Amino acid sequence: MESLLLIRYGEIALKGKNRPFFEKKLFKNIEAALQNLKQPFQVEFHRGRYYVTTTEENLFPALRRLQKVCGIVSISPVSQADLDLDKICRQAARLLAASYQPGMTFKVNTRRANKKFPYPSPEINRLVGAYLLKENPGLKVDVHNPKTLVNIEIREKKTYLYSQVFQGPGGLPVGVTGKGLLLLSGGIDSPVAGWMALKRGVKIEALHFHSPPFTGEGAINKVLDLCQQLAAYGQKITLHLAPFTEIQQEIMSRCPRPLLITLMRRVMFRIADRLAQKRKITVLFTGESLGQVSSQTLENLVAINEVTALPVLRPLIGFDKEEIVEISREINTYPISIRPFEDCCTLFIPRHPATRPTLDQLARAEKKIALEELITRCLENIESRTILSE
């Protein structure tokens, strides 16, 4: 038996003459999200709405996947009726029967996109509501806080009826605003920054620095699982694993300890800059939040930015920790981020890190290490993996 999902977008409607570009990209992303379903599906687009036809068995697996497609605002399982008021009334009664309980309150809400349909929306609401009350004497109308909302969309060729609305992430389709490189740690913040980049239409690749034997397979698996969660929103993510042990040991043995974190971050950004240029990526993303830790003071952020010509975007810059944790719970990265496997930065935090280092101090410290050779070796030994959405 066939089932039908109706998909709505939001921000795309504001794109003017560029709207078809965004609509086509979202169409492709919807198809990609459904590729591995057990049963066949069909995606259609008509006048600002997408329709996915699939089997009853596939309906909720498809719905769960579509709830993670950026650009989708909401999704509803719908039933159809011809453009005939009697048939619409009967279909509304069947829809209501699925959740009917004596004394239940309801409201009919009509959107008449097809202005050729002879009844205006308020009249449809009244007539369908009267029919439902006649068929179900125990029903009560409540226009303010109904238990069940019977939604009716009158469109060009069909009428669509639904009572359930499932939220999507909103935003823009992934891929419409270019590519970004996410500096991904194993913590709470950077996966949230990656998700926010995806939601703004950025196709992301991820760069993770690891320091064996100080960081083990548990830390790598943690990052792979984080990428898996993000891939559900972006279909595919390329993860670059950069060995950082040699660089950390050199910095720790030759440079002032208070500058350790800032120096490490500056090297990471140099490596990210070169990798991004090689991958034709034009912007870096990080999970930094202003003032959250010592390396995220304004002075440190300025010092870190100084080593790259690429724009560094920090979607969480004004968020506090509670706000970031709330989002990480919503996108299901929080349980992964709190696993007890440390990343290479948190393992080597000095006792009294510098919060206001000067560029001169950092430049003098960097002259003590063979910076160019270390960066080159790190880049040559990066391992890249492709993580697909499940």
Quick overview of this protein structure:
The protein has 390 residues and is α/β, with parallel strands linked by helices. 38% of the residues lie in helices and 22% in strands.
Overview of the structural elements:
By secondary structure, the chain is α/β, with parallel strands linked by helices. Helix content is 38%, strand content 22%. The chain folds into 2 domains: 2-167, VC0802-like, CATH 3.30.2130; 179-388, HUPs (Rossmann fold, 3-Layer(aba) Sandwich), CATH 3.40.50. It has helices at 19-33, 59-66, 85-97, 121-135, 189-199, 217-234, 245-254, 260-278, 298-305, 321-330, 334-337, 359-366, 371-380; strands at 2-9, 42-46, 49-55, 72-81, 105-112, 140-141, 148-154, 159-162, 166-167, 179-183, 203-210, 236-243, 284-285, 312-313, 383-388. Strands 1, 2, 3, 4, 5, 6, 7, 8 and 9 form a 9-stranded mixed beta sheet that branches. Helix 6 (217-234) links the parallel strand 11 and strand 12 (236-243). Helix 5 runs parallel beside helix 6. The longest helix is centred in the C-terminal third of the chain and has 19 residues, at 260-278. The protein starts with a strand and ends with a strand. The mean pLDDT is 93.
